[in-house]
Fold this sequence. Notes:
Largest sheet: 6 strands, mixed
Radius of gyration: 22 Å
Distance between the termini: 31 Å
Strand content: 15-25%
Oligomer: single chain
Structural class: alpha/beta
Amino acid sequence: MQAVLLIDFGSTYTKVTAVDLNSESILGTAKAFTTVTTDINEGLKNAVEVLHSQIGGTDYTAKFACSSAAGGLKMVAVGLVPDLTAEAAKRAALSAGARVMKVYSYELSTKEAEEIHKLKPDILLLTGGTDGGNKNVILHNAKMLSQIEGNFPVVVAGNKSVAEQVGDLLKQSDKEVRICENVMPEFNVLNIEPARAAIREIFLRRIIQAKGLTKVQSLIDGILMPTPSAVLNAAHRLAAGCGNEKGIGELMVIDVGGATTDVHSIAGGEPARAGVIVKGLPEPFAKRTVEGDLGVRYSASALIEAAGIELVGKRSGLPAEEIMRYVNKISEQPEILPEQDEKLSLVDYGLTSVAVKFAVERHAGKIETSYTPFGVTYLQTGKDLTGIKKIIGTGGPVINSKNPTGILKEAMFESTHPSILKPQSAEFLIDKRYILAAMGLLSENYPEVAIRIMKKELQVL
Protein backbone atom coordinates (compact mmCIF):
# COMPACT_ATOMS: atom_id res chain seq x y z
CA MET A 1 0.00 0.00 0.00
CA GLN A 2 1.15 3.53 -0.80
CA ALA A 3 -1.08 5.86 1.20
CA VAL A 4 -1.51 9.62 0.76
CA LEU A 5 -3.39 11.83 3.22
CA LEU A 6 -5.36 14.74 1.74
CA ILE A 7 -6.58 17.45 4.11
CA ASP A 8 -9.15 20.20 3.62
CA PHE A 9 -9.10 22.83 6.38
CA GLY A 10 -12.63 24.19 6.02
CA SER A 11 -14.26 27.03 7.90
CA THR A 12 -16.35 24.61 9.97
CA TYR A 13 -14.84 21.16 9.45
CA THR A 14 -11.38 19.77 8.81
CA LYS A 15 -11.94 16.93 6.34
CA VAL A 16 -9.39 14.19 5.71
CA THR A 17 -9.26 11.63 2.91
CA ALA A 18 -6.83 8.70 2.77
CA VAL A 19 -6.00 7.33 -0.68
CA ASP A 20 -4.05 4.22 -1.69
CA LEU A 21 -2.11 4.98 -4.86
CA ASN A 22 -1.47 1.29 -5.64
CA SER A 23 -5.12 0.19 -5.66
CA GLU A 24 -6.26 3.67 -6.79
CA SER A 25 -8.96 3.68 -4.15
CA ILE A 26 -10.18 5.73 -1.20
CA LEU A 27 -9.28 4.07 2.08
CA GLY A 28 -11.55 6.30 4.14
CA THR A 29 -12.78 9.81 4.89
CA ALA A 30 -13.47 11.61 8.16
CA LYS A 31 -14.01 15.07 9.58
CA ALA A 32 -13.76 17.04 12.82
CA PHE A 33 -14.39 20.64 13.79
CA THR A 34 -11.73 23.08 12.59
CA THR A 35 -9.80 24.65 15.47
CA VAL A 36 -8.12 27.57 13.71
CA THR A 37 -8.83 30.00 16.57
CA THR A 38 -6.84 27.89 19.05
CA ASP A 39 -4.49 25.30 17.59
CA ILE A 40 -5.43 24.02 14.13
CA ASN A 41 -3.50 20.83 14.88
CA GLU A 42 -6.23 19.77 17.30
CA GLY A 43 -8.92 19.63 14.61
CA LEU A 44 -6.57 17.79 12.26
CA LYS A 45 -5.57 15.35 14.99
CA ASN A 46 -9.23 14.68 15.85
CA ALA A 47 -10.15 14.07 12.20
CA VAL A 48 -7.21 11.72 11.68
CA GLU A 49 -8.14 9.79 14.83
CA VAL A 50 -11.65 9.25 13.47
CA LEU A 51 -10.17 8.17 10.14
CA HIS A 52 -7.76 5.72 11.76
CA SER A 53 -10.56 4.25 13.87
CA GLN A 54 -12.09 3.22 10.54
CA ILE A 55 -9.04 2.09 8.54
CA GLY A 56 -6.38 1.48 11.20
CA GLY A 57 -3.11 3.36 11.69
CA THR A 58 -1.35 4.14 8.43
CA ASP A 59 2.03 5.47 7.35
CA TYR A 60 1.59 8.09 4.66
CA THR A 61 3.87 8.59 1.67
CA ALA A 62 2.75 12.22 1.45
CA LYS A 63 0.32 14.65 3.10
CA PHE A 64 -1.15 17.53 1.11
CA ALA A 65 -3.66 20.16 2.19
CA CYS A 66 -5.92 22.93 0.94
CA SER A 67 -7.63 25.52 3.08
CA SER A 68 -10.64 27.78 3.28
CA ALA A 69 -10.33 28.20 7.05
CA ALA A 70 -10.57 31.61 8.73
CA GLY A 71 -12.67 33.00 5.88
CA GLY A 72 -10.58 31.56 3.05
CA LEU A 73 -8.83 33.95 0.69
CA LYS A 74 -10.64 37.30 0.76
CA MET A 75 -9.93 39.68 -2.13
CA VAL A 76 -10.88 43.06 -3.53
CA ALA A 77 -10.49 43.77 -7.25
CA VAL A 78 -10.02 47.23 -8.77
CA GLY A 79 -10.22 47.95 -12.51
CA LEU A 80 -11.06 50.64 -15.01
CA VAL A 81 -14.27 49.76 -16.90
CA PRO A 82 -16.80 47.45 -15.16
CA ASP A 83 -17.28 45.10 -18.13
CA LEU A 84 -13.60 45.02 -19.14
CA THR A 85 -10.57 45.26 -16.83
CA ALA A 86 -12.64 45.19 -13.63
CA GLU A 87 -14.42 42.04 -14.85
CA ALA A 88 -11.06 40.55 -15.91
CA ALA A 89 -9.69 41.23 -12.42
CA LYS A 90 -12.71 39.55 -10.83
CA ARG A 91 -12.28 36.47 -13.01
CA ALA A 92 -8.56 36.23 -12.17
CA ALA A 93 -9.35 36.37 -8.43
CA LEU A 94 -12.15 33.79 -8.68
CA SER A 95 -9.99 31.41 -10.71
CA ALA A 96 -7.38 31.60 -7.93
CA GLY A 97 -9.98 30.34 -5.46
CA ALA A 98 -10.66 33.68 -3.79
CA ARG A 99 -13.85 35.08 -2.30
CA VAL A 100 -14.23 38.44 -4.03
CA MET A 101 -15.72 40.80 -1.47
CA LYS A 102 -16.16 43.73 -3.87
CA VAL A 103 -15.12 44.98 -7.32
CA TYR A 104 -14.42 48.68 -7.93
CA SER A 105 -14.27 50.53 -11.25
CA TYR A 106 -12.99 53.92 -12.51
CA GLU A 107 -11.20 56.30 -10.11
CA LEU A 108 -11.53 55.29 -6.45
CA SER A 109 -13.26 57.88 -4.31
CA THR A 110 -12.32 58.68 -0.72
CA LYS A 111 -15.45 56.88 0.45
CA GLU A 112 -14.51 53.77 -1.54
CA ALA A 113 -10.98 53.84 -0.15
CA GLU A 114 -12.43 53.93 3.37
CA GLU A 115 -14.64 51.00 2.44
CA ILE A 116 -11.64 48.96 1.28
CA HIS A 117 -9.91 49.74 4.57
CA LYS A 118 -12.91 48.33 6.44
CA LEU A 119 -13.13 45.25 4.22
CA LYS A 120 -9.54 44.29 5.18
CA PRO A 121 -8.79 42.14 2.12
CA ASP A 122 -6.11 39.46 2.26
CA ILE A 123 -4.94 40.52 -1.21
CA LEU A 124 -5.97 43.37 -3.54
CA LEU A 125 -5.76 42.97 -7.32
CA LEU A 126 -5.19 46.29 -9.09
CA THR A 127 -5.79 46.45 -12.83
CA GLY A 128 -6.72 49.13 -15.34
CA GLY A 129 -5.98 50.10 -18.92
CA THR A 130 -4.84 47.96 -21.80
CA ASP A 131 -1.11 48.07 -22.55
CA GLY A 132 -0.47 51.52 -23.99
CA GLY A 133 -4.00 52.61 -23.07
CA ASN A 134 -5.35 54.66 -20.17
CA LYS A 135 -2.68 55.39 -17.52
CA ASN A 136 -4.32 58.01 -15.35
CA VAL A 137 -6.91 55.86 -13.59
CA ILE A 138 -4.55 53.14 -12.38
CA LEU A 139 -2.06 55.78 -11.19
CA HIS A 140 -4.85 57.60 -9.32
CA ASN A 141 -6.00 54.35 -7.75
CA ALA A 142 -2.45 53.42 -6.70
CA LYS A 143 -2.18 56.77 -4.90
CA MET A 144 -5.50 56.20 -3.16
CA LEU A 145 -4.53 52.66 -2.11
CA SER A 146 -1.16 53.85 -0.81
CA GLN A 147 -3.02 56.09 1.62
CA ILE A 148 -5.04 53.22 3.09
CA GLU A 149 -3.71 51.87 6.34
CA GLY A 150 -3.27 48.14 6.30
CA ASN A 151 -0.54 45.82 5.19
CA PHE A 152 -2.44 43.91 2.52
CA PRO A 153 -0.37 42.80 -0.51
CA VAL A 154 -1.26 44.29 -3.91
CA VAL A 155 -0.97 42.40 -7.19
CA VAL A 156 -0.57 44.90 -10.03
CA ALA A 157 -1.79 43.57 -13.39
CA GLY A 158 -2.63 46.63 -15.47
CA ASN A 159 -1.21 48.85 -18.20
CA LYS A 160 2.44 47.80 -18.52
CA SER A 161 3.47 51.34 -19.49
CA VAL A 162 3.00 52.49 -15.88
CA ALA A 163 3.25 49.22 -13.96
CA GLU A 164 6.60 50.09 -12.33
CA GLN A 165 5.37 53.59 -11.45
CA VAL A 166 2.25 52.08 -9.87
CA GLY A 167 4.41 49.66 -7.90
CA ASP A 168 6.64 52.47 -6.60
CA LEU A 169 3.61 54.44 -5.38
CA LEU A 170 2.30 51.46 -3.44
CA LYS A 171 5.68 50.58 -1.95
CA GLN A 172 5.83 54.03 -0.36
CA SER A 173 3.21 52.79 2.10
CA ASP A 174 5.24 49.63 2.81
CA LYS A 175 2.77 47.41 1.01
CA GLU A 176 4.05 44.23 -0.57
CA VAL A 177 3.71 44.59 -4.34
CA ARG A 178 3.78 41.96 -7.08
CA ILE A 179 3.82 43.21 -10.66
CA CYS A 180 2.73 40.78 -13.33
CA GLU A 181 1.42 40.85 -16.88
CA ASN A 182 -1.73 42.80 -17.69
CA VAL A 183 -4.99 40.84 -17.25
CA MET A 184 -6.19 42.56 -20.43
CA PRO A 185 -3.18 43.53 -22.61
CA GLU A 186 -5.45 44.30 -25.57
CA PHE A 187 -9.13 45.15 -25.84
CA ASN A 188 -11.22 42.00 -25.23
CA VAL A 189 -8.13 39.78 -24.78
CA LEU A 190 -7.93 38.03 -21.41
CA ASN A 191 -4.60 37.07 -19.80
CA ILE A 192 -5.49 36.06 -16.23
CA GLU A 193 -3.01 33.22 -15.65
CA PRO A 194 -0.03 35.42 -14.50
CA ALA A 195 -2.25 37.24 -11.96
CA ARG A 196 -3.75 33.96 -10.80
CA ALA A 197 -0.28 32.49 -10.26
CA ALA A 198 0.84 35.58 -8.31
CA ILE A 199 -2.25 35.40 -6.06
CA ARG A 200 -1.66 31.75 -5.36
CA GLU A 201 2.02 32.31 -4.53
CA ILE A 202 1.13 35.05 -2.04
CA PHE A 203 -1.63 32.89 -0.54
CA LEU A 204 0.80 30.04 0.07
CA ARG A 205 3.58 32.17 1.47
CA ARG A 206 1.87 34.90 3.39
CA ILE A 207 -1.83 34.27 3.96
CA ILE A 208 -1.30 30.85 5.47
CA GLN A 209 1.01 32.42 8.02
CA ALA A 210 -1.45 35.21 8.77
CA LYS A 211 -4.26 32.74 9.42
CA GLY A 212 -2.34 30.64 11.92
CA LEU A 213 -1.88 27.69 9.60
CA THR A 214 1.89 27.56 9.94
CA LYS A 215 1.41 25.26 12.93
CA VAL A 216 0.63 22.41 10.57
CA GLN A 217 3.40 23.13 8.09
CA SER A 218 5.80 20.78 9.85
CA LEU A 219 3.23 17.96 9.79
CA ILE A 220 2.38 18.02 6.11
CA ASP A 221 4.17 18.33 2.78
CA GLY A 222 2.46 21.54 1.90
CA ILE A 223 -0.74 23.55 1.68
CA LEU A 224 -1.08 23.68 -2.06
CA MET A 225 -4.02 25.97 -2.74
CA PRO A 226 -7.30 27.47 -1.48
CA THR A 227 -10.08 24.85 -1.32
CA PRO A 228 -12.22 26.35 -4.13
CA SER A 229 -9.17 26.22 -6.38
CA ALA A 230 -8.77 22.52 -5.56
CA VAL A 231 -12.40 21.82 -6.54
CA LEU A 232 -11.95 23.69 -9.83
CA ASN A 233 -8.74 21.74 -10.42
CA ALA A 234 -10.56 18.43 -9.90
CA ALA A 235 -13.43 19.42 -12.19
CA HIS A 236 -11.01 20.49 -14.92
CA ARG A 237 -9.04 17.22 -14.75
CA LEU A 238 -12.20 15.11 -14.73
CA ALA A 239 -13.59 16.89 -17.78
CA ALA A 240 -10.45 17.18 -19.88
CA GLY A 241 -8.51 14.07 -18.77
CA CYS A 242 -4.72 13.79 -18.56
CA GLY A 243 -2.12 11.63 -20.28
CA ASN A 244 -3.63 8.27 -21.17
CA GLU A 245 -6.70 8.79 -19.00
CA LYS A 246 -9.56 10.35 -20.93
CA GLY A 247 -11.91 12.85 -19.34
CA ILE A 248 -15.70 12.53 -19.25
CA GLY A 249 -16.29 15.68 -21.28
CA GLU A 250 -17.79 19.07 -20.52
CA LEU A 251 -19.43 19.27 -17.11
CA MET A 252 -20.74 21.51 -14.35
CA VAL A 253 -20.07 21.26 -10.59
CA ILE A 254 -22.49 22.90 -8.15
CA ASP A 255 -21.18 23.29 -4.59
CA VAL A 256 -23.76 24.53 -2.08
CA GLY A 257 -22.44 25.63 1.30
CA GLY A 258 -23.50 27.51 4.39
CA ALA A 259 -22.13 30.87 3.22
CA THR A 260 -21.97 30.62 -0.58
CA THR A 261 -22.96 28.59 -3.61
CA ASP A 262 -20.13 28.01 -6.10
CA VAL A 263 -20.73 26.97 -9.69
CA HIS A 264 -17.93 25.61 -11.88
CA SER A 265 -18.39 25.03 -15.59
CA ILE A 266 -15.73 23.25 -17.60
CA ALA A 267 -16.91 23.96 -21.11
CA GLY A 268 -16.15 26.06 -24.16
CA GLY A 269 -19.53 27.76 -24.05
CA GLU A 270 -19.62 28.73 -27.73
CA PRO A 271 -23.04 29.33 -29.34
CA ALA A 272 -24.88 26.07 -29.98
CA ARG A 273 -26.62 27.37 -33.07
CA ALA A 274 -25.53 29.30 -36.13
CA GLY A 275 -26.07 33.00 -36.54
CA VAL A 276 -25.45 33.97 -32.90
CA ILE A 277 -22.99 36.78 -32.20
CA VAL A 278 -20.98 36.63 -28.97
CA LYS A 279 -20.50 39.87 -27.11
CA GLY A 280 -18.45 40.74 -24.03
CA LEU A 281 -15.21 39.25 -22.77
CA PRO A 282 -14.13 35.80 -23.93
CA GLU A 283 -15.13 33.13 -21.43
CA PRO A 284 -12.54 30.86 -19.74
CA PHE A 285 -12.90 27.11 -20.40
CA ALA A 286 -12.76 26.50 -16.62
CA LYS A 287 -15.01 29.11 -15.03
CA ARG A 288 -15.98 29.56 -11.39
CA THR A 289 -18.57 31.91 -9.95
CA VAL A 290 -19.36 32.46 -6.27
CA GLU A 291 -22.69 33.70 -4.96
CA GLY A 292 -22.22 35.18 -1.50
CA ASP A 293 -25.96 35.71 -0.96
CA LEU A 294 -26.96 32.13 -1.75
CA GLY A 295 -25.70 30.07 1.20
CA VAL A 296 -28.13 28.01 3.28
CA ARG A 297 -26.84 28.85 6.76
CA TYR A 298 -24.81 32.06 7.25
CA SER A 299 -26.47 33.60 4.16
CA ALA A 300 -29.96 32.12 4.58
CA SER A 301 -31.60 35.51 5.22
CA ALA A 302 -29.88 37.01 2.17
CA LEU A 303 -31.01 34.03 0.10
CA ILE A 304 -34.64 34.62 1.15
CA GLU A 305 -34.25 38.28 0.23
CA ALA A 306 -32.76 37.46 -3.19
CA ALA A 307 -35.15 34.68 -4.17
CA GLY A 308 -38.33 35.60 -2.35
CA ILE A 309 -39.94 33.55 0.39
CA GLU A 310 -42.78 32.51 -1.93
CA LEU A 311 -40.41 30.42 -4.06
CA VAL A 312 -38.77 28.81 -1.02
CA GLY A 313 -42.26 28.04 0.27
CA LYS A 314 -43.22 26.48 -3.05
CA ARG A 315 -40.16 24.20 -3.00
CA SER A 316 -40.40 23.26 0.68
CA GLY A 317 -44.18 23.03 0.96
CA LEU A 318 -44.14 25.07 4.16
CA PRO A 319 -45.91 28.38 4.93
CA ALA A 320 -43.87 31.60 5.02
CA GLU A 321 -44.19 31.97 8.80
CA GLU A 322 -42.76 28.50 9.39
CA ILE A 323 -39.86 29.12 7.00
CA MET A 324 -38.94 32.42 8.67
CA ARG A 325 -39.05 30.78 12.09
CA TYR A 326 -36.47 28.26 10.92
CA VAL A 327 -34.35 30.85 9.07
CA ASN A 328 -34.11 32.84 12.30
CA LYS A 329 -33.10 29.67 14.12
CA ILE A 330 -30.48 28.91 11.45
CA SER A 331 -29.06 32.43 11.78
CA GLU A 332 -28.60 31.96 15.52
CA GLN A 333 -27.29 28.39 15.22
CA PRO A 334 -25.72 27.90 11.78
CA GLU A 335 -24.25 24.57 12.87
CA ILE A 336 -27.62 22.84 13.36
CA LEU A 337 -28.46 19.88 11.09
CA PRO A 338 -31.90 18.46 10.20
CA GLU A 339 -31.29 15.01 11.77
CA GLN A 340 -34.71 14.19 13.28
CA ASP A 341 -36.34 17.56 12.49
CA GLU A 342 -38.42 16.90 9.37
CA LYS A 343 -39.49 20.53 8.96
CA LEU A 344 -35.88 21.74 9.05
CA SER A 345 -35.12 19.13 6.41
CA LEU A 346 -37.88 20.61 4.22
CA VAL A 347 -36.60 24.15 4.79
CA ASP A 348 -33.09 23.01 3.82
CA TYR A 349 -34.46 21.42 0.67
CA GLY A 350 -36.30 24.62 -0.25
CA LEU A 351 -33.29 26.84 0.41
CA THR A 352 -30.84 24.55 -1.40
CA SER A 353 -33.11 24.14 -4.45
CA VAL A 354 -33.52 27.88 -4.80
CA ALA A 355 -29.78 28.48 -4.25
CA VAL A 356 -28.98 26.10 -7.13
CA LYS A 357 -31.59 27.67 -9.39
CA PHE A 358 -30.34 31.22 -8.91
CA ALA A 359 -26.61 30.38 -8.84
CA VAL A 360 -26.80 28.54 -12.17
CA GLU A 361 -28.95 31.27 -13.72
CA ARG A 362 -26.28 33.82 -12.79
CA HIS A 363 -23.47 31.57 -14.03
CA ALA A 364 -24.99 30.60 -17.40
CA GLY A 365 -24.89 32.81 -20.47
CA LYS A 366 -27.87 34.75 -21.81
CA ILE A 367 -29.15 35.26 -25.32
CA GLU A 368 -31.09 38.26 -26.50
CA THR A 369 -32.76 39.28 -29.73
CA SER A 370 -31.61 42.44 -31.49
CA TYR A 371 -33.52 44.00 -34.36
CA THR A 372 -31.33 45.72 -36.96
CA PRO A 373 -32.04 47.28 -40.37
CA PHE A 374 -30.73 44.03 -41.87
CA GLY A 375 -33.02 41.75 -39.86
CA VAL A 376 -33.05 39.89 -36.56
CA THR A 377 -29.72 39.22 -34.79
CA TYR A 378 -29.10 37.06 -31.73
CA LEU A 379 -26.53 38.22 -29.18
CA GLN A 380 -24.98 35.88 -26.59
CA THR A 381 -23.33 37.08 -23.38
CA GLY A 382 -21.47 34.49 -21.31
CA LYS A 383 -21.33 30.75 -21.85
CA ASP A 384 -23.87 28.63 -23.73
CA LEU A 385 -24.17 25.60 -21.42
CA THR A 386 -27.14 23.98 -23.16
CA GLY A 387 -24.94 21.12 -24.40
CA ILE A 388 -23.46 20.10 -21.03
CA LYS A 389 -24.14 16.41 -20.31
CA LYS A 390 -22.89 15.99 -16.72
CA ILE A 391 -23.91 17.95 -13.62
CA ILE A 392 -22.15 17.07 -10.34
CA GLY A 393 -23.62 18.07 -6.99
CA THR A 394 -21.44 18.54 -3.92
CA GLY A 395 -21.56 20.33 -0.56
CA GLY A 396 -23.34 19.18 2.59
CA PRO A 397 -26.85 20.50 1.74
CA VAL A 398 -26.82 18.55 -1.55
CA ILE A 399 -25.08 15.31 -0.61
CA ASN A 400 -27.02 14.91 2.66
CA SER A 401 -30.38 15.71 1.11
CA LYS A 402 -33.02 13.01 0.75
CA ASN A 403 -33.74 14.33 -2.74
CA PRO A 404 -30.51 15.47 -4.44
CA THR A 405 -32.02 14.81 -7.87
CA GLY A 406 -34.80 17.31 -7.18
CA ILE A 407 -32.21 19.89 -6.14
CA LEU A 408 -30.00 19.38 -9.21
CA LYS A 409 -32.99 19.59 -11.56
CA GLU A 410 -33.06 23.29 -10.67
CA ALA A 411 -29.90 23.65 -12.80
CA MET A 412 -31.73 22.61 -15.95
CA PHE A 413 -33.03 24.67 -18.84
CA GLU A 414 -36.49 26.18 -18.34
CA SER A 415 -38.79 26.71 -21.30
CA THR A 416 -40.36 29.61 -19.41
CA HIS A 417 -36.94 31.35 -19.39
CA PRO A 418 -35.48 30.38 -22.79
CA SER A 419 -32.98 33.23 -22.83
CA ILE A 420 -30.95 31.61 -20.02
CA LEU A 421 -28.57 29.05 -21.57
CA LYS A 422 -28.70 26.30 -18.92
CA PRO A 423 -28.14 22.58 -19.71
CA GLN A 424 -30.99 21.00 -21.67
CA SER A 425 -30.30 17.32 -21.10
CA ALA A 426 -27.79 16.20 -18.48
CA GLU A 427 -26.97 13.26 -16.24
CA PHE A 428 -26.76 13.98 -12.50
CA LEU A 429 -23.86 12.73 -10.36
CA ILE A 430 -23.22 13.24 -6.68
CA ASP A 431 -19.99 13.63 -4.73
CA LYS A 432 -21.38 11.50 -1.90
CA ARG A 433 -18.07 11.16 -0.01
CA TYR A 434 -17.14 14.81 -0.53
CA ILE A 435 -13.86 14.03 -2.29
CA LEU A 436 -13.61 16.65 -5.05
CA ALA A 437 -11.29 19.01 -3.15
CA ALA A 438 -9.11 16.04 -2.15
CA MET A 439 -8.93 14.88 -5.77
CA GLY A 440 -7.95 18.38 -6.85
CA LEU A 441 -5.03 18.15 -4.44
CA LEU A 442 -4.10 14.63 -5.54
CA SER A 443 -4.19 15.64 -9.19
CA GLU A 444 -1.33 18.08 -8.62
CA ASN A 445 1.03 15.09 -8.37
CA TYR A 446 -1.02 12.08 -9.53
CA PRO A 447 -3.53 13.43 -12.07
CA GLU A 448 -4.36 10.15 -13.82
CA VAL A 449 -4.96 8.37 -10.49
CA ALA A 450 -7.21 11.22 -9.34
CA ILE A 451 -9.30 11.02 -12.52
CA ARG A 452 -9.75 7.25 -12.22
CA ILE A 453 -10.79 7.54 -8.56
CA MET A 454 -13.34 10.25 -9.38
CA LYS A 455 -14.80 8.09 -12.14
CA LYS A 456 -15.29 5.29 -9.61
CA GLU A 457 -16.48 7.39 -6.68
CA LEU A 458 -18.94 9.88 -8.18
CA GLN A 459 -22.37 8.25 -8.07
CA VAL A 460 -24.90 8.53 -10.85
CA LEU A 461 -28.33 9.52 -9.52
